[in-house]
Write a structure and sequence with these properties.
Length: 406
């Protein structure tokens, strides 16, 4: 066992997260913030980061840190205070103060309003920042931080469940449409109009996440047993996955791979799940004439509607058991954490599952084309106390161990 004393980062690490293209890990804590490159997690035996304090920002505590991809534009939040700054110069661009704590912040790339490549005006390109409070969502233009619109009287959203498409094609906002049922509301942040509302789960939403292209969204309810993927913006169900049968969990994060072929989920358990986004066909089934297929499909559809009308809860439970697929791969964390974030990172033509935890660690697992249980290949300390612990770097590993063994 190592001679140095373990540190408790749970009271110091307020925020952990990956940026939009999954190339950076952001950590916010009481004294400041820091960034780590995900490529360094895989390539280096010791992580280094640029540590910034909050003294010149006039903030007391970093509760959210959100960076626009790998650019110099960044937003730092301390409870009700928000600062937009240039990370290269650490200069404050503007600041805002709200009457309630800021729960979530999202930024996106430029959205081109004109399909004509010869569009001459700069106004043809827009970028958005959304700020989520528990009862409203505020939409700003990044260029001048002018508030463009406010979505008020939204269902109470104490978890700050919201996401914004980060691609350059659209700027859709997704947030819960109801506090009791798991409906998803889509809002166009460029044209400032509602787009669609659809029911994703029976229970209230706990987590939702767009893919990088912005044409799919993954959702999970507070029950946490079933994860679904819907098309955007029409809300058609594409995939349905079962994380567990009877064990209800809290889903902490969802993340698509950059090519949208995989979806990862992490929770308050030690198991991280990876699902494969592909439609499976049973080639062993005998061919059936089209007219018989249509008749059977019509009868089944009518039966389903009747049953779901009179027994909606029982029908959904049976439907979930019949249609959902199990995870393609799993990874075991050394221990259960109070919070974590998951990412599917592509690096040097390989795919990795990466998990950053609020107790001061980041773990990397190599994806196996065959699925199954994934091998832990790298682990590092992260957070405000990580520099003092580099006398015993974690680096490469060959097996999973508990934190007490480090």
């Amino acid at each position: 066992m190592s001679s140095y004393k373990m540190y408790d980062t749970r009271r110091m690490m307020n925020y952990i997260g990956f940026n939009q293209d999954l190339k950076m890990i952001a950590v916010g804590h009481k004294e400041g913030y820091m960034f780590y490159k995900t490529s360094d997690v895989l390539d280096k035996s010791r992580l280094s980061c640029g540590i910034q304090n909050l003294n010149n920002l006039g903030l007391q505590n970093c509760t959210i840190i959100e960076r626009l991809f790998s650019s110099s534009l960044m937003i730092v939040v301390s409870q009700k205070n928000l600062r937009v700054l240039n990370v290269a110069t650490n200069n404050i661009i503007c600041d805002h103060q709200f009457n309630k704590p800021v729960l979530t912040v999202r930024l996106n790339k430029q959205v081109m309003l004109c399909n004509n490549v010869n569009c001459p005006t700069e106004s043809s390109f827009l970028q958005r920042v959304i700020v989520c409070l528990e009862d409203s969502i505020l939409i700003y233009n990044i260029k001048d931080m002018k508030m463009m619109h406010s979505i008020v009287d939204t269902p109470l959203n104490k978890l700050g469940v919201v996401d914004l498409t980060s691609n350059s094609g659209d700027a859709y906002i997704a947030f819960p449409g109801n506090t009791t049922t798991g409906s998803v509301h889509l809002f166009d942040a460029i044209n400032l109009v509602s787009v669609n509302t659809f029911v994703a789960h029976e229970g209230a939403l706990a987590c939702l996440q767009f893919n990088q292209k912005g044409d799919m969204i993954a959702t999970a309810s507070t029950k946490g047993t079933v994860i679904r993927v819907y098309s955007v913006p029409d809300g058609h169900l594409l995939f349905e996955f079962r994380r567990g049968v009877s064990r209800c969990v809290t889903i902490y994060s969802l993340c698509f791979s950059s090519d949208s072929k995989y979806l990862a989920s992490s929770s308050n358990t030690e198991t991280v799940h990876v699902f494969k986004l592909e439609k499976t066909e049973d080639v062993s089934k005998p061919e059936v004439p089209n007219d018989m297929m249509e008749t059977a499909a019509g009868w089944l559809s009518a039966f389903n509607k009747t049953v779901s009308t009179y027994m909606p809860y029982q029908f959904m439970q049976v439907s979930e058991l019949m249609t959902t697929e199990r995870s393609f791969a799993t990874a075991k964390l050394p221990c259960v954490t109070e919070s974590n974030r998951v990412a599917l990172v592509s690096h040097k033509n390989h795919q990795y599952l990466m998990v950053a935890t609020n107790d001061g660690f980041v773990y990397a697992y190599q994806m196996n084309p065959e699925g199954g249980e994934l091998d832990l290949v790298k682990q590092h300390y992260i957070g405000p106390e990580s520099e003092s612990l580099h006398s015993s770097p974690l680096g490469n590993v060959t097996n999973t161990r508990s934190h007490n063994d480090f």
